[in-house]
Amino acid sequence: EVQLQASGGGLVQAGGSLRLSCTASGFTFDDYKIGWFRQAPGKEREGIACIGYNDDSIYSAEDRFTASKGDAKNTVYLQLTNLKPEDTAVYHCAAERSPAYGSGCPVNPRSMNYYAMDFWGQGTQVTVSS
After folding, report:
1. Is the CB of residue 20 less than 8 Å from the CB of residue 77?
2. What is the per-residue pLDDT across 88-113, written as a single tens digit (0 to 9) for each?
3. Which of 28, 44, 57, 127 is the most exposed place for a label (fewest CB within 10 A)?
């Protein structure tokens, strides 16, 4: 069974950091792009980072967010630093098979379409207190 699971969220004070993990089961990320998304209360879901596994492309919407691959081919990470209360949201990861050439990761991750991805995982809550 194919599954994605985001984890690592929690409650943190403003200025703090968290590292989120996205782990796949039932497949590996070799031919996929992995998108990180978040949805704050009352707001639309937005893309914040993309990892292209087949061409090593990594794009983040903000310098405070750093996406990276794990040693295992079924894990990626999202490092969140200098967190602000407005970063409070549910963070999700999702995967989409890459095209024949390139990874399909957009330079601006905010343009990613969450619903165009092939697999989605349950999110992890990040709450930033002021």
Report:
1. yes
2. 999 999 999 988 787 789 999 999 99
3. 44
